[in-house]
Amino acid sequence: MDAVDNYFGFAAYTGFTIEINGNDYAVFESGGFYYVPYDPSFDDLSSLNGTSVTQPFTNAGDDAVVVNCFLAGTSIATVEGEVAVETLAIGDTVLNADGAEVAVKWIGRQTVKTMFKPAERVAPVRFAAGSLGEGLPVSDLTVTADHGMLVDGVICHAGALVNGTTITRVPMEEMGESYTVYHIETEAHEIILANGAPAETFIDNVSRRVFDNYAEFEALYGDVPEMEELPYPRAMSARQVPAHIARLLGVSKVA
């Protein structure tokens, strides 16, 4: 983390304190997320082993914020062919779902430490090859639970599509001690192709502060206008997934 304007994030309840390495930090809310002020000791996140927290928290990682991102190894369609998301850089060109060339404005990175035992609902979601129909994705695709996938004209959050067979939550023990997720930001909200499947780019209905390299974005762009979402309906939970999509993918509407 950079020492300027960084925060260690928890989505919990404001007005309480969290104890980290014997020090108490006040939890505060900003932009719909909950944080403690940055401390240089957080640079070595391994030092947070054994973190204890004041009630009502039960674990330092409960409801940890992980926003819409791809995991390393995800193949993104570009004018030069498929490129691993972690190798993309500002200024590179990707293809949107209509085949148009779109410049990458920023690549956000977020390191997730599994020692915090994030709540199940924020665990990564794995789409088996072909699980979205029409042979898509072309190979197994793992994204964060809030990543939007375009399915039959509806942006469905990955977590809303879990069916327990071909679309599943990835157990944290499979992720190792930590893993890194990447988001692609373009000038406008876009649908791009990840392992061949239509998936959304970053939309700023969550704070960029949750990313490890937020300071880079601020230095490059400063304050920017809010982005305009694409004109698709959005299903954020299984109950909001249209019935015909739920039937197609085997999603339980009571999930």
The Rg value, from CA coordinates, equals 18 Å
Measured between the Cα atoms of the first and last residue, the distance is 36 Å
Order of H and E elements? EEEEEEEEEEEEEEEEEEEHEH
- Give the strand tally: 20
**Low-pLDDT ranges:** 1-16, 29-34, 43-67
Main β-sheet, in a few words? 4 strands, antiparallel
Describe the structure.
The chain is mostly beta strands. The protein has helices spanning 214-221, 243-249; strands at residues 7-9, 17-20, 23-26, 28-30, 33-37, 52-53, 70-71, 75-78, 81-84, 93-95, 101-113, 125-127, 141-143, 148-151, 154-157, 167-169, 178-186, 191-194, 197-200, 234-235. The protein has a four-stranded antiparallel β-sheet, with no helix packed on it. The longest helix is centred in the C-terminal third of the chain and has 8 residues, at 214-221. The chain is globular, with a radius of gyration of 18 Å. Mean pLDDT is 78; it is low at 1-16, 29-34 and 43-67.
Secondary structure elements and pairings:
Elements: E1 7-9, E2 17-20, E3 23-26, E4 28-30, E5 33-37, E6 52-53, E7 70-71, E8 75-78, E9 81-84, E10 93-95, E11 101-113, E12 125-127, E13 141-143, E14 148-151, E15 154-157, E16 167-169, E17 178-186, E18 191-194, E19 197-200, H1 214-221, E20 234-235, H2 243-249
